[in-house]
Write a structure and sequence with these properties.
The chain is 9% helix and 52% strand. By secondary structure, it is mainly beta.
């Protein structure tokens, strides 16, 4: 009799173990009712320069029809804002929500890490999504040598065609270069990379159009991954010069020789005066005035760019 009881006990233990194992394995293969969770921009700033960086998007799908609530919680597990009040959603529904970093009291939350939470009202199952969102409102800091004064001649001859300066930033960020033209500050470069060091380059153009000869004030800023743009500050003056003459007007007697200073970065320039023309090296050029009296114009060319001087003969 004792032997029969012992066998029964062993069988009971084996059955219980098998049942527990089956339950455990079933739990392992049970799929979460939430799938395809995604946060495309895990770092953002409510103060970002670009409106697209001022919100975080949370998206997911439901495997079954559910009544759900979605909220954001802070690092301590406290609810800070409800993204979706209780609502019924069908199976396979794509839920797409946005958060602007504002709490339920209307105040922007402090910098830090926050997580989206989904509650299934029917099963009372609460799930913290595995997609942390970080709010960062601190502006990056960018450093460049200053002050700088440079001369460029963006005429495509590979002689001083562009202005270039190195920089470093306090955190991974884009370098941003601005040029003031026509009383307006315009962005001329936004680096693709977010490295701590890099170079900013200006080719003498705004958009696709070359600027006119003159002096231009350059300012620099940085934009971090959250979209925070630091305040641009001026650091350089760049003179755009293709070809320039030392004097706008010369008075000379008929047939006499005169000289004028020609500044250009090209190795040679072309000139034209009263039907005569030639090629010369930039520097001090010497000419003979026409033998007749009157006002004539000396033109000096570099590519398609020209400078002009009035030659008054009398």
């Amino acid at each position: 009799m004792a032997r029969v009881l012992s066998i029964a006990a062993v069988l009971g233990l084996l059955l219980a173990s098998a049942l527990a194992f089956a339950i455990t394995e079933k739990a392992k293969v049970t799929l979460s009712p939430i799938r395809s969770t995604e946060v495309p921009r895990p770092v953002f700033s409510p103060n970002a320069a670009d409106p697209a960086h001022r919100v975080a998007t949370v998206s997911f799908r439901l495997r079954t029809s559910q009544r759900i609530t979605v909220w954001m919680q802070d690092a301590h597990g406290h609810r800070v804002e409800t993204l979706l009040p209780v609502r019924s959603e069908r199976r396979g529904a794509a839920i797409v929500l946005q958060w602007d970093g504002v709490a339920s009291n209307g105040i922007v939350v402090p910098d830090g890490v926050y997580r989206p939470v989904v509650k299934l009202e029917g099963s009372h199952l609460t799930t913290v999504l595995p997609n942390p969102i970080r709010i960062d409102t601190k502006q990056p800091h960018i450093v460049v040598p200053k002050p700088l004064h440079a001369v460029i001649s963006p005429d495509g001859d590979h002689h001083k065609d562009f202005f270039q300066v190195g920089y470093h930033v306090s955190e991974p960020a884009h370098g941003v270069l601005f040029v003031r033209a026509g009383g307006k500050q315009q962005r001329v470069e936004y680096t693709l990379s977010q490295k701590l060091t890099g170079d900013l380059v200006w080719n003498g153009k705004i958009g696709q159009k070359a600027v006119r000869p003159g002096s231009y004030l350059l300012s620099v800023a940085a934009q971090d991954r959250a979209g925070n743009l630091s305040k641009p500050y001026p650091f350089a003056v760049v003179d755009v010069r293709y070809v320039s003459l030392g004097r706008p007007r010369i008075v000379v007697k008929p047939g006499n020789r005169f000289a004028i200073r020609v500044s250009a970065d090209a190795p040679t320039v072309q000139w034209r005066l009263h039907g005569r023309s030639g090629t010369a090296t930039p520097g001090t050029l010497h000419f003979r005035a026409p033998r007749s009296t009157g006002v004539f114009f000396l033109y000096v060319f570099v590519g398609t760019h020209a400078a002009r001087c009035a030659v008054v003969v009398g």
